[in-house]
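Reopening this ticket.

The earlier resolution said the output was attached, but the attachment link was broken on my side. Pasting everything inline this time so it's all in one place.
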Amino acid sequence: MADNILSDFGINILEEEIDDVIFQTNEFLCDATFTGQQGPFWWILQMCMALAALFSLVVAAQLTYKMMVKHEPLDVMKMLKPLAVAVIMCWWYPPADTGITNSNSSWCFLDFLSYIPNCIGSYTHDLYEAEATQISDKFTEVQELIHTRDTIYNGLQAKADVAHKGSQDPNVTEATMEQVGVPHVTKMEEESSEMWFTSLTSGAIICLDKIVMTLALIVYRIGWWATIYVQQILLGMLTIFGPIQWAFSLLPKWEGAWAKWITRYLTVHFYGAMLYFVGFYVLLLFDIVLSIQVENLTAITESTTSMVGYLKNSFFSAGYLMAASIVALKCLNLVPDLASWMIPEGDTAFSTRNFGEGVAQQAKTTATGAIGSFMK
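Inline output:
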């Protein structure tokens, strides 16, 4: 039943398959199965590593020439810096993939830098998954109650349509007048018209309620996926073009480029840890909101009498969910800031935050306009 109800919304509150696809994007772009022998970014990555290593060796050769031929003071530290950069370039990406060192090792310099963020991210991911399991069960319960509400409503609507059509039939009206009299027939016509109009307006409310629920889930997932995908884009750029920045750090004017690159790389890597940390609190909010929705839908579907009472005074069961989604989107905008706080003088991806704020504002405007138009 839950699978059929999911098709009514077109989106789930937790789309793990799409999360996995987004997280594997950079691996896929460097996979040999994507474009044949090499991935689209593979050649660029290898060229950047090779050029950075070659540049560092040229700088080392220049320093050696100055010290040996021009008799400049011997400085071992100056010699070690370009050689260290050249060695790092050889282990920038796993040797098992690059084949530079003829080694089958899967360890690389990038893994060393991301070890601590990945450890923290693993713990926050476990917290998120634990709460996500409860949310998934709660969301399934909501869907089943919505299906029950719609089933009861369809039955009552069918009765209202039959009564309304019967009151409009002259033959039925004339026969009823002969049996019970004109005042009773008039009252029956009024009740059938009222019941038909109530079912019509209630159906519009139920339809709009589904739209609000779908919009709420889409708004939340847009913020979630945007944060993940921006992280993957930034990680891809830092991974591919990082060797060039390390090579430039050998020049006097850009000697701090390697430190700035490490700061940016660690900051972006902390996006994942902070995303699941914020996501855990967001799911706690959804847990409360979905619990309220379950209580409301349970009261509505308790009996036919309660359903009739709901039809006379319909309301949005997904109203709190929409508000929670906008709040969740605002919270997801904090991910870049939280990640930058973890690293001293860390850079924040303003594009991620601005994108999320724009989506939240647009979603709020759209929801307000839709509800305002409906009320008019």
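Reporter confirms the inline version is readable. Residues 1-7 have pLDDT under 50 and may be disordered. Residues 182-248 form the longest helix (67 residues).
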